[in-house]
Amino acid sequence: MCKLVVMVLILLTLLVNYLMIVFYKCLYRQTRFSSRRVRKRVIFKHGDVNVVQGNVAKRRRRYLQDIFTTLVDIQWRWTILVFAMNFILSWLFLGVVWYLIAYAHGDIEFFNKSEEEQEAYQKSLNISSYTPCVTQIHSFLSAFLFSLETQHTIGYGHRYVTEQCPEAIFMLCLQSIMGVFIQAFMVGVVFAKLSRPKKRAQTLLFSRNAVICHRDGVPCLMFRVGDMRKSHIIEAHVRAQIIRRKVTKEGELLPFFQQELLVGADGSDDRLMFIWPTLIVHRIDEESPLYNLSAQDMLKERFEIVTMLEGVVESTGMTTQARSSYLPSEILWGHRFESVVSFKRETGEYEVDYTLFNNTYEVDTPLCSAKELTEMRAESQSQGEADQNNSAFNIHHIPSSVSLETPSERSASIEPSNHELKSCLTLNLPNGNLPNSRKTSFSSMPATIVTIPDDHEPLTIPSQTQQEPQSSSRKLSKLSIIDPIDSIC
């Protein structure tokens, strides 16, 4: 029987060592993803972090010191295995202890004798009946069953501890405490694993792509977030960071420079009323890292925009965080999201159609960067102001076929700056109508001599033989993704 116990212990030791090796290989494996993956990203679309902690000193000891968090973080199959092995090993170990107690007291030897030998043994001790430490323990299997019944307080009634052995009473108390501790620990691990807020984050959705389009004349980066559950996220707020390479003024290379993006729901702050899918907007202004990027630059740049949605789960009160990311290839320039919320008159409810959650459509959007767009707008505005300031006369635009004369039938008052002219000029126009109501400078008119009174010299309006190039406003109207004509981007 002792040989059997020794063999069982050796097999259990080998089994435990093998399971621990497999457990550590699973826990500390280098990567969970194929090495053939081409795209480099820090955060995957489903929210997992693509970072492996390597070459950590005393890593196994540190993980085992925080065994509760380790058991919560590992996969379910390993948690269930540890759960089962804790109980089985405790039953086997304490079963061996009960067997040794019975063996040391002589119970195993006594119950394995025949009835005649038992009577002779009792007569030799001058006792009427033999009292064992634990009744009905005559083998290792019976000791194992008694250990199982004691730890889980099953109590079938055939096996029980007597007053004969104080060590048996001590082991009974110790196993009862140990059984409660193991049950509480493993139930806590399973409950914490089931109620993790990470699972709640699986029902928080991010759009497959981000888009860049104009809103109120300002280029904006937008993506959509949604919650498919009826229980809402309380105090929901969103964050975004751009991760890219940067070289400082001192020449230091920062391969993963993180910069915060100012985002908000529909252009407001980052707190959301998260009752339906919401558009998160980042205004591309002078403070934005995307201010200098055009549509063509977007295809060449290497960066990653990491988005995070945080809040308190209404049903459990735990804080959860959902993550996603967007590469430059996942940002659609000149697109806008379709609306997913509609009102049903039949039921009087607002309905969210998640089949349209990732749908976009093209819109007229400049292909140049926000910086170039701002500069061209400023140039166009300054050019318009300069035209008005440089115009000495307030004359409507006249084509080159129209001449200026001085008949007395039609007149137009011309007031040069710093001079007050008393004469009147007459415009001879075809059909007596102005072809265009826009005001222009003299640089756009043919050379003409205007007759001025004797106290002034004749005024010559400069001519321009070549056609004036298109103005900035004309170019702005053509810098679109739909009709990219004469694009300077």
UniProtKB/TrEMBL annotation:
Residue ranges, compositional bias (Low complexity): 462-477
Single GO MF annotation: inward rectifier potassium channel activity
Biological process terms in GO annotation: potassium ion import across plasma membrane; regulation of monoatomic ion transmembrane transport
Keyword hit for Transport: yes
Location(s), subcellular: Membrane
InterPro entries given in the database record: Ig_E-set, IRK_C, K_chnl_inward-rec_Kir, K_chnl_inward-rec_Kir_cyto, Kir_TM
SUPFAM superfamilies: E set domains, Voltage-gated potassium channels
Membrane topology term: Multi-pass membrane protein
Catalytic activity: K(+)(in) = K(+)(out)
One Pfam family here: IRK_C
Transmembrane stretches, start-end: 6-27, 78-101, 168-192
Main location group: membrane
GO terms for cellular component: monoatomic ion channel complex; plasma membrane
The Potassium channel inwardly rectifying transmembrane domain, residue ranges: 44-197
Protein name listed in UniProt: Uncharacterized protein
